[in-house]
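tool_call: predict_structure(chain=1)
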Amino acid sequence: MNHIVVIGFMGSGKTRVGKRLSSDLGLTFVDVDKVIVKKMNMSVKEILQKFGEPYYRALETMTVKALIEDKERKVISLGAGLPVQEQNEQYIKQLGTVVYLKGSAETLRKRLEGNSNPLLEGENQDEKIKKLLKQRDPVYHKFADIEVVTGVKPFEELIKEIEEQLP
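tool_result:
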């Protein structure tokens, strides 16, 4: 299926961009995290606290596998950690065209200020963002059919840049 798949770090704008693309293209928008939250009737934070990260990652994989079977073309936003999980590599490319929203550590830090993401809790948030970004950027880049930088140009220009590159 040739869905449009939006990936990127926390705070990169996956949901905002995904919703706009779906509106412009007349497609349904699916946020994998929201699908899981609805299915489990718990917040992401509650799922992580109660069952742990490996369980949450398994839920992400199950959700992505189900979306591959979906015959209606959609715009899909993946959780920031989903592409990093090795078991998902084969599924992401099967989903369709992958758009990587690449943000600088500075842009992402500003956008994530005050964010209560459990994966950013504990140590210095700035250092945690830089460390995770260093790990994840090469993975996101590997999957990207389209790569755009967020936080440097107006939103409308960013959307136009993506839409012009879509197959």
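agent: Residues 125-143 form the longest helix (19 residues). Proceeding to next step.
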